[in-house]
Amino acid sequence: MEKTLAILKPDCVRKNLIGDVIKQITEAGFRVRGMRMVWLTAETAGGFYEVHRERPFFQDLVAFMSSGPCVPIVLEKDNAVADFRALIGATDPADAAEGTVRKRFADSKGENIVHGSDSVENAAIEIGYFFAGRDLVALG
Ligand code: ADP
Ligand code: MG
Predict the structure, then answer these.
(1) Which of 137, 134, 135, 122 lies closest to 5 in space, CA to CA?
(2) Where do the domains of the chain lie, and which CATH numbers do they carry?
(3) Which pLDDT band, with edges at 50, 70 and 90, does 138 fall under?
(4) pLDDT digits over 18-28, tens only?
């Protein structure tokens, strides 16, 4: 079964929306295989978003992602990567489809509540950034 990495970002935690967002995710058919709460350092956040290092928003992104705890979650579902991207909506909540997580809960393109892997290959890399194999629980 396909896996993807979600991160409930620091704005999601600060706004006390962890439960609301996980409810929408699980009601959409995703199964939780692993979950942690971590407070990233600037170095760790920058490493996660390495591909964006040269982008103009990189410093703001690192500051935001290290501004408080976040909740990485390994999700499993058929077609998990694409289905999760559809569930969360466009990067900018102003462009996100009605009913998507970002449309419902996000304030801005930077503080947009949730991360979702953009390919199966990147999902495996990103899952490995936060979880060891033994941390992923088999579904009963
Ligand atoms: P996504 O999270 O939808 O895959 P990207 O990979 O393009 O989006 O960007 C990673 C994250 O960087 C976004 O989720 C958002 O938090 C931030 N970001 C992207 N573009 C901008 C921007 N133009 N201004 C501010 N923050 C941005
Ligand atoms: Mg991305």
Answers:
(1) 122
(2) 2-135 (3.30.70.141)
(3) confident
(4) 999 999 999 99
